[in-house]
Amino acid sequence: MIPSPTPRVLHLAQSDSEGGANRAALRLHRALLAAGMDSRFAAGRRRLDAPDIVAAGPSLRRTDLAAYANAATVKPFRGRGGAPGLITPAALGYGRLGPDLLDAADVVCLHWIAGAFLAPRQLRALRGKPLVWRLSDLWPFTGGCHYPGDCHGYERACGACPMLGSRWAWDITRHGWRTRARAYRALDITVAAPSRWIAACARASSLFRDRRIEVIPTGIDLSRYRPRDRREARAALGLPPDRDLILFGALASTDDPRKGCAELMAALDRFADRPEAASATLVVFGNRPGAPVPGGDRLPLIALGHISDEDRLATLYAAADVLVAPFLEDNLPNVALEALAAGTPVAAFDIGGMPDIVDDGVCGRLVPARDAEALAGAIAWILDAGRRGDAVRRAARAKAEQRFDIAACAHQYRALFSQVVQTA
Fold first, then answer.
1. What are the counts of helices (DSSP H) followed by strands (DSSP E) for the chain?
2. 405: DSSP letter
């Protein structure tokens, strides 16, 4: 096949709207469309009624059942001291990769395909086409975990997974690794890494170390996520106009230990003894409805729950004085990018992709992981900087404009797609 001058790209993602990884995938697709590229988006769970999105899976109910059955394979490991919720097996795949999807594509861009959407063996249907795999987490090159903690098993062949509390070399993570190795052998894979950290992990991995790996950051719609008058933003959301708002949020923000809620509460316990705490209020979003939200005993607390409307979320970022991102492991979290774009500085642990986002002492602060006292100091530093003027907020927006503009990121992907098609 002679490739078209502008390659036709097919995006494959588990959903069109659920979770940050899928939202980032859809943003990229639509930015490519806006740039005049022939781009199609196929979602395993199609929830949006949009003409540019096609379904690559059965009904939502059947996808739920498949995901439940897939996750059941980790049940025997419960009670062994592991964390099976952080392992997603690849035994089942409900996704449909028929010729109606594939024949019209010159290049396929894979995004987050876990959750029983596509099992590695199904990727063999993509043989003969160049693939660009945008890494949302480490799952594509591990035996099933999304973030490995201190484990480096993915640099070899996994097995004896500490996350499962397993001591057996041939546990489900070794089988997951072998399934990937067999499937990838015949595939032309180029890796797109949103952060330098995950690029380094991929280069160290046994599955991707011999592949081409490019760093292209996640892009943000800077026209939606932008600075606004803070008083007007607070009035629109019913937030107090005269308090320093400390914002914390993510998907399952108070339930997922990796999001660092416990570490944030330890930091706020120390922050509460500082003079800056007298005018501060904690605002939490992404918490599960009805679930208790810790932290209200030392600072006034406003819990907003899940926010699905992006305009409301963008207004919330603009209303805050600081976003705290106490994540213990993460790639290039959307919440930190979106906050910067809204002109809100970020206090975070110096882990994962956070150094790509926060220039310490310029648009926020980075502190050692799990250091509650240092995180409390970072929050206070940002609040004090805000009282002295808007320099730190202007720097936050400037960093987003320089590094995370979705239009510029789409241009980099377009160039990469053209290269891999021409060299296939």
1. 13, 13
2. B
301 token code pair: 């607390």
Cα(72)–Cα(81) distance, integer angstroms: 17
Residues 21/12, Cβ–Cβ less than 8 Å: no
Cα 3 to its chain centre, rounded Å, is 32
List, in sequence order, every beta strand (DSSP E) within 314-369. 322-325, 346-349, 364-367
Contact call for residues 293 and 303 (beta carbons, < 8 A) = yes
E strand or H helix that includes residue 215: strand 212-215
Largest CA distance in the chain: 68
Unique residue bearing structure tokens 């330890």 = 266
Give Cα 228 distance to the centre of its chain. 25
pLDDT digits 0-9 by tens, 217-238: 999 999 999 999 999 999 999 9
DSSP 3-state of 379: helix
Three-state secondary structure call for residue 313: helix
315 burial type by CB count under 10 A (0-12 exposed, 13-18 middle, 19+ buried):
buried
Torsion of CA 76, 144, 25, 319, to 10 degrees: 70
Strands 322-325 and 244-249: parallel
Q: Are 153 and 161 in contact (CB under 8 A)?
A: yes
As beta bridge partners, residue 347 has: 324, 365
pLDDT of residue 1: 36
Contact partners, residue 181, CB within 8 Å, separation at least 6: 157, 206, 207
Torsion sign (Cα): 140, 145, 151, 157 = negative
Q: What is the DSSP string of 281-310?
A: EEEEESPPTTS--TTTTTS-EEE------H
Give this prediction's pTM: 0.94
What residues of the chain score a pLDDT lower than 50? 1-4, 81, 84
